[in-house]
């Protein structure tokens, strides 16, 4: 009986080994693999989330040296963090000196790790912003500095090609309008003052006065409580209130 027991134990070992050592193709670590009893292999030591950040940097050559050099946080030290921590750490770029915050996981991941947003042109910096671009344009964009009309923000706060609309005031006719910095700075087909360009030659009041009597009734029927006809272009699509000069209908 003892011999049979030993033989049974020996015969069971290969079945256990075969079951646990052969991971499913395409299903490593998946719920299906766990239900079937397959064991997913451990990830390489360098890819484990809990790996100390300093150790990871030492194993990654020049890239790791750069991260240790740019680590500039006042709450954490490199030695107390792991490579995949989600806390937003402060970094200072060794190339341009720009300071920003992002998680360790974003900088240590294998695919598409993040770097300095200033060097990447994603944020305005002291050396790359709308004002600098205008001053270094050989005169092509210098007029934008005088036409800037934002009440609270500076040109330094914007990139040259942002798609956010900001207010401008024409240096020639004084007309005010909104346009993106991209529309105003692009090399081809850049946009200037719409009034000077003929897209807004005069306001509705002037348009009626120059209509040879055809639109003389509109000033009498104007019923906007806060705005005048001077605030609108003749072809504006904004709806405004009117009051009939004949029956008084509004």
From TrEMBL:
Residue ranges constituting the Treble clef zinc finger domain according to the UniProt record: 67-122, 144-199, 220-250
Cited InterPro entries: DUF4379
Protein name per UniProt: Predicted protein
UniProt lineage: Eukaryota, Viridiplantae, Chlorophyta, Mamiellophyceae, Mamiellales
Top-rank taxon: Eukaryota
Organism whose genome encodes this protein: Micromonas pusilla (strain CCMP1545) (Picoplanktonic green alga)
